[in-house]
Design goal:
By secondary structure, the protein is an alpha+beta fold. It is 37% helix and 27% strand. A four-stranded antiparallel sheet has the order 1-2-3-4, with helices on one face. Strand 3 and strand 4 form a beta hairpin. The radius of gyration is 18 Å and the shape is elongated.
Amino acid sequence: MNTPIEIACFECGKGSMIPKIVDLTGYRHGEDFTVPAHGLQCTVCGFKTIDSKHSEEFTKLISDAYREKHGLLTGKQIREARRHLRMSQDEFARYLKVGPASVHRWE
């Protein structure tokens, strides 16, 4: 059985960083967005951060917050539209005349 590794707080050095859902702020096109995300929080000072394994998820959450604020489709909405058309990401990219990497990034 694997025992979780205890990580000392990066900020105060006294507490332990425990995994939990935390409100974190990110930036997109010069705007701040705070979203709940899988992160780490110090048991003593309350410092919050994100670990590398959740950074992609956090980036998508920030992007979707930006999209929602500006009336754009979220990644989930784009994926649902593509699936409704019964297209792969590559097929959808050709249909939209964009690169497959763009569709992957949007979703």
